[in-house]
From TrEMBL:
This is Zn-dependent hydrolase. It comes from Alcaligenes endophyticus. The keyword Calcium does not apply. Coiled coil: none annotated. Pfam families: Peptidase_M20 (PF01546).
Length: 432
């Protein structure tokens, strides 16, 4: 009898917490935060900029209005905390980032931060208490900052922000360490990780998908299974610069022709390797041609190749396969190919238990969901090194992201928020 009454009370408390979620308040906060942008370049709010600091002041106010105790940690992450019932319990974290790329989208990152604030606000309004503390995090500089480093705050949390990274300077001669200090961090405390394994109960990040899969399949929720690894190369095709009007076609050593062959082969190879089980994309997104003149045969082409996959074996072998495939044809054209691997980030696989919880939460709330990988990088990648982690995706219009046309709807955002709340309530009871 008492147990039944207790369970009924728990159900009522959960229902009250969900009823306290306010879709209009969520959307108004999203729209307000997005207005912190360079007027001539929507939506641009770069980390460490004055606009970024102004937006964070507003975020801190919203966190306090939601009943959170606010601080900035040594890495410059903005954190709002709500205590839990159980003394000594490790925190459940949620959140994302509030900085943008240049001319970026208005919902990338900020949905996860604002949804965390709304979740905390609903818990406060309904007096629902989690067993664990809840921490809502605005991670510092998830997008690549002006020093070329991404995920600054989450890297620092887990000890992956190196002294060499901290020493990198922007065009004004300000180091990353100095910039972290200027936003309230304490860079001298970043020689070791801020969190160790076991310090965080779980981390769940809500985000727009930044791709077209959910929209194309008519799914409201994506339960993200893993994040791709990223491997980058510099490629140089060397030929011979000559006069474009006087050099016959049969004796030219045109480096741009060789670069075109390599780019085409790269496209074909990535398309062949990509399957429903193995995610592969590969992009030559940057190229320079020398002498770069309309009346000169190109003698040198420098490019970057970025390969992304959720399969380690693909990342390991992709470059060698590509280069071996085109090398003989390049040699026949009198060309040479130089390659160098310049960065390598491993794939991250998320917690199976949390992915399943996200799926179950979606089902219980009446939302269709599917499992899918993420082809983009996120702060969750670094948190997964030290804590059970997963992500929730909601659709974005035509899969567009990192552009002014990026869009989602109030209903889609609210669906993600409700799945986030139910998932956190389940994770709160889960023993990992």
């Amino acid at each position: 009898m008492n147990q039944v009454a207790h369970n009924k009370t728990d159900v009522e408390k959960i229902e009250n917490a969900f009823q306290a979620l306010d879709k209009k308040r969520l959307w108004q906060r999203l729209e307000t935060l997005s207005t912190y942008t360079e007027p001539a370049r929507p939506w641009t709010r770069r980390a460490f900029s004055p606009l970024f600091s102004e937006a964070r002041q507003w975020l801190a106010q919203q966190m306090r209005a939601a009943g959170l105790v606010v601080r900035i940690d040594s890495a410059g992450n903005l954190i709002g905390r709500r205590e839990g019932k159980r003394l000594g319990a490790k925190p459940i974290m949620t959140g994302s980032h509030s900085d943008t790329v240049f001319d970026g989208g208005r919902y990338d990152g900020i949905l996860g931060v604002v949804a965390g604030i709304e979740l905390a606000h609903a818990l406060a309004d309904s007096a629902y208490e989690l067993e664990h503390p809840l921490e809502v995090v605005d991670f510092l500089s998830e997008e690549p900052c002006d020093r070329g480093i991404s995920c600054v705050g989450s890297r620092a949390m887990v000890g992956a922000l190196t002294p060499a990274m901290l020493a990198l300077m922007d065009s004004d001669g300000v180091s990353l360490a100095q910039a972290i200090d200027q936003v309230g961090g304490l860079s001298h405390e970043l020689s070791s990780a801020l969190y160790q394994k076991g310090d965080i109960h779980a981390f769940i990040e809500l985000h727009i998908e930044q791709g077209p899969v959910l929209e194309n399949k008519g799914m409201a929720i994506g339960a993200v299974t893993d994040l791709v690894g990223v491997r980058s190369y510099t490629l140089t095709v060397l030929g011979r610069p000559d006069h474009a009007g006087t050099t016959p076609m049969d004796i030219r050593q045109d480096a741009l022709v060789g670069a075109a062959l390599l780019i085409q082969q790269n496209f074909q190879q990535a398309a062949r390797l990509n399957t429903s089980q193995c995610y592969v994309v590969a992009t030559v997104g940057c190229a320079s041609v020398l002498p770069n003149s309309s009346n000169a045969v190109p003698g040198r082409v420098e490019m970057t190749l970025e390969v992304r996959s959720n399969q380690l074996a693909i990342l390991e072998g992709y470059g060698d396969e590509l280069f071996d495939t085109v090398r003989e044809e390049l040699q026949a054209l009198g060309l040479r190919l130089h390659t160098e691997s310049i960065s390598y980030g491993l794939p991250r696989h998320f917690s199976d238990a949390i992915v399943e919880i996200i799926e179950q939460s979606s089902y219980c709330l009446g939302y269709e969901s599917m499992r899918l990988p993420s082809g983009a990088g996120h702060d969750a990648a670094y948190l997964s090194d030290i804590a059970p982690t997963a992500m929730i995706f909601v659709p974005c219009l035509q899969g567009r992201s990192h552009c002014p046309e990026e869009a989602t709807t109030a209903d889609q955002a609210f669906a993600g928020l409700k799945v986030l709340m139910r998932s956190i309530m389940a994770v709160d009871k889960h023993v990992f």
